[in-house]
Amino acid sequence: MNALNSRTFVRLGMGLAALTLGGASLPSGSVAAAPTAADSDVDVVNTETVQVYTDADGKIETKRLYEQLTLAGKGRVVLDNPIEEDGLRNLDDFSGVDTKDGKQHVDADVDGVERRRTVSDFKGDLPLEVDVDYKLDGKKVKAGDVVGEDGDLEVTYTVTNVTGEEQEISFPDGKGGMVTETVDVPIPMVGSLTTTLPESFTEVHSDQANMAGDGRGGTKMSFTMTLVPPIGTDTATFGYTAKIEDGVVPRASLSALPVNPLESPTFKSAATSYKGGADTGAELVAGATEIDSNLLKLRDGAGDLLAGLIQLSDGADQLNAGLSGEAAPGARKLANGAGELSDGLGTLKNGAGALDRGAGQLDDGADQLADGADRLSGGLGELDSGAGDLSSGAKRLAAGQKALAKGLKTMYEGVQLLPDNVQEELKSNVDYQTLLGALDKVVAGVGTRDDSPTAGTLLGGVNQIQYAMRFPGPNDCALALTGGTPTKCGAMDAVQLVANQLRAGAAGLPDGPRQQIEGAANALTGVYSKVDAQLLGAGAGLDLLRGGLSNGDVTNCAAAARTPERADDCGIKQAAQAVRAGVPVLVSTLVTNIQQTLLDALGKPTPGCDPKATLRCAAGALANGGGDLVAGVNTLVEGVTLLNQGGLDLSSGAGRLSAGLETLSAGTSELSAGAGAANDGAGQISEGAGTLADGLDEAADGSGRLAEGLEKAKTSAPALPEGANRLSKEGTKKLVAAGEATTQQYGKLYAIVEAGSKRANAGSMAEGAPENARGLTAYSFEIKGEDGEGGRNVQRALGAVVLAGLGLGAFALRRRFI
Questions:
Q1: Model confidence over 417-432: pLDDT tens digits?
Q2: pLDDT category, 348, cuts 50, 70, 90?
Q3: What proportions of the chain, in percent to the nearest 5, are helix, strand and coil?
Q4: Environment class of residue 665 by beta-carbon count within 10 Å: exposed (0-12), middle (13-18) or buried (19+)?
């Protein structure tokens, strides 16, 4: 490897390590590349590193700004770089820096790669505040009080992102409108703090740190900070405890940089999930609102049904009152009168025989008999007319009863078709199908754990992150050492290769540089080891994310087969599948319950059924009674017709008797025959009237049972609108409210992430970059230790510079000793 390639690869590795500390991508607004002059093809990169030294208690002592302008290409470059002028020094040579109005002016002809480095005193505000607290044997102390002591030491670091600014954000309210709130929006930051405890620290414990040995008996510790609200918090608190002898306070190094959560692979999926949650909540609100509207329509329809049943019940009560209170008693009186008429006609027949034997005695009464016969004929004519009217009314009554039974049958058949009609309606209901389609899209969007990185699903995206960090299989990262372009090389593969190359390159160097380069290689080893353990390993971060998206079969989730709580086995995919399966079941169950209630009330007119139990059975009984009534009335009409004819014959005979006694013998014979016929007709009238009375009694009983059945239906029917109203209030309205809350919750989270991303793009640099240049900013905090030896401060400062330079220091050392 030649010197130029070696130095370039070292800088590449150090840059990768710095970015991997937070698993982040830099703000896109600060790294947009463009030519710096119209007549040149030169790429300009401006890196800023703010280095802060604090005492062991976290109090700031110095702040310096290291700037590097890297010019690569060929052509003339003219630029002005914002810079801090206090304490400004040129790090490349002993010449000064051309500045004006707070900007470094550069006018250069470039052919290859040129670098211009400066350092100055930083006067700006820091994005982070760092506090360090110490407790010795449970008592709060200063750092200097720990030196030389024995006991139980507790060290707590508190790092706070103080870049927050109040901003107005807007997000959907789930009802078609927007909600505006004022929230505190900081610039998103990620970072890590590392420290090495000496071998005199034993029983070391920390709930937050990644720990490993340093190869010299000490303990290396690394803490990760995600200061990215709402994905993380704006404050990170962490630390460790240990037993110490002849105590010292180890120094600590903190590195941090701004990050754009909408572009960082680590945080982009969380932001996308927030947006997806808001969209799904809005779709849930729309679907639940449509269901609630249909439930209210069902409630109103059930109210109309109840009103109809009430009217039908009132009509049945009136029918029962008419039959049992008037028609049946009247028919009974008619039967009694017909019996009396039959008895009278029997007496008439006997008298006619006596008349035939005593015709001589009838001369004086002949005129009276003629008058009586005329009156009898007129009365029988009226009876005949009334019997005809009674027959017509009985037929209309029977026809109405049959129509009632037929109408109830039609209603029964219509209720049987109710579920199919509702299901057919739902097939063409756009909002209902949209709800089911949205849930299907959620399931499809999550995908499966075996999805390829290009599948376009969330789980495919997680696998893409895995491959980007560690290529699955042999990698070709080493191609970069010979100027090639690796295509099968993950970020951690590259970091591991850099660490190995640093160790190999340091083997022949003097002890001082070799130890420092080996320290940098060890730091890189700690980086990829931590990523492998906490992010890529089995049961680590990516596996936990996969479990949250899709966790086994939905039946395991629903039955809580593996854990006490059902939700423990549910991923987003299984929850969407459960809701997708439950909506059609809810609609089908509701329609089936309504159908069964109506069918139970209507019933079927089966032989031997109880007319008091169902409407159709009562209507059948009423129809049977109507048929009996018609038969009795027909018999009555026949008897009245015969009686009427006998009356006419009697009138004719009486006339002839009155006309001449000479025809008395013939007339009395005819009278006797007519009286016999009249007696027979009267018997038939009496029998028909009895049948009529019996039929009307049965009709009265049937109408009573019909009234009882309708009363039962009228009592049960209010449960339909009440049930639909309760389902609306306790079910769908709560579902609407939950959807609105979900939309607002996730919408607000995404709006905060979006606002933070804009701040990261607009204000992430400490001083700013030249126009059309790429700008990168990092912050390094060196927290000094306490050991009672002031002479070691120089060595600690040198170590801090090497770690905080993010590639600059490594390049300088490599250039100096190779």
A1: 777 877 788 888 888 8
A2: low
A3: 60, 20, 20
A4: exposed
